[in-house]
Design goal:
- This protein is α/β, with parallel strands linked by helices and about 280 residues long.
- The protein has ten helices and nine strands.
- The strands form two sheets. It has a seven-stranded mixed beta sheet, with helices on both faces.
């Protein structure tokens, strides 16, 4: 019975994100890149991508899962994990409460098992609407549990990252998640299993410096900002003008940090092809 209610909640949140997912409520929306105006419903039908310049709006976790996973196969994992306030940081508890009410999420990541075009896998999706996808102790724990679930069941792992970095309100507890998630991926790799990392806009800070950069295959959406420190910080530090498009997905692909930049409309098929190619290569 609980599983039925959980599936219903997932569908409701996914539909809510299809209606809203970072796009304002107005009927006409303006693309932040090219300035073109489009009807909101048209942008939604286009997977939150600008029809003119192909700008990719940020995507809610449940909406993204709906676009890449087979209907009826999604089973959410460890959905009751929530952040605490270990340092009693001023205002943090209130921010957590507000983020949970506004997004319908308990944390900035949703982890599930399911299938992509019939290929079973474990998928984690970070949601930048929840405190900018910052990495908390609860987020790190959910990712580690998803990694361990995939390892025990010998399933491929796919993690979509979208983060501003560590959650400063949790201090060292947040920074510890870098080592914790990396160690879990090392155990996963020892089993010869496949890990696909998908970097979306933005993927920065401690997330970039840990699990997001450890994929066997690293993909990215077009235009995604990818790096540790931001370009303005780097430019101020080195005192030089940075190249055009510095730290964007296309720049990172050209310099070997990203294997491929994949349009959102092609993401499901791309992941499906990779999973199919690697299925028979599973090491026993």
């Amino acid at each position: 019975m609980n599983n039925i209610f959980a599936k219903r909640r997932t569908r409701i949140l996914a539909m809510k994100e299809i209606r809203e997912h970072y796009i304002p409520r107005e009927k006409l929306v303006t693309c932040p890149r090219c300035g073109a105006e489009h009807f909101r419903r048209d942008v939604s039908k286009n997977l939150a991508v600008c029809p003119d310049c192909q700008y990719h709006w940020p995507m809610g976790a449940y909406f993204r899962l709906k676009t890449i996973m087979d209907s009826g196969t999604i089973r959410e994992l460890n959905q009751n994990y929530v952040s605490k306030d270990p340092l009693e940081f001023p205002g943090y508890a209130e921010k957590l409460d507000e983020a949970q009410k506004r997004t319908g999420l308990r944390e900035a990541v949703v982890t599930v098992s399911g299938a992509i075009n019939g290929h079973r896998c474990v998928v984690g999706v970070m949601d930048s609407r929840f405190l900018m996808g910052s990495m908390s102790a609860a987020l790190g724990e959910k990712i580690v549990l998803a990694i361990d679930y995939a390892r025990r069941n010998r399933l491929p792992l796919i993690l979509f990252s979208a983060s501003g970095g560590a959650r400063m309100q949790e201090g060292i507890y947040s920074l510890m998640q870098m080592a914790k998630t990396s160690a879990a991926l090392a155990r996963f790799a020892e089993k010869g299993l496949l890990y696909i990392s998908v970097m979306t806009d933005p993927t920065t800070g401690g997330v970039t410096a840990s699990f997001a950069s450890l994929g066997d295959i690293i993909l990215s959406e077009p235009g995604a900002l990818i790096g540790f420190a931001g370009p303005r910080v780097i430019q101020q530090t080195i005192g030089e003008t940075l190249p055009e498009g510095f730290q964007r997905a296309e720049f990172q692909e050209k310099h070997g940090f990203v294997d491929a930049v994949v349009h959102r409309s092609e993401m499901k098929e791309t992941l499906s092809k990779i999973l199919r190619l690697h299925e028979k290569g599973d090491l026993k």
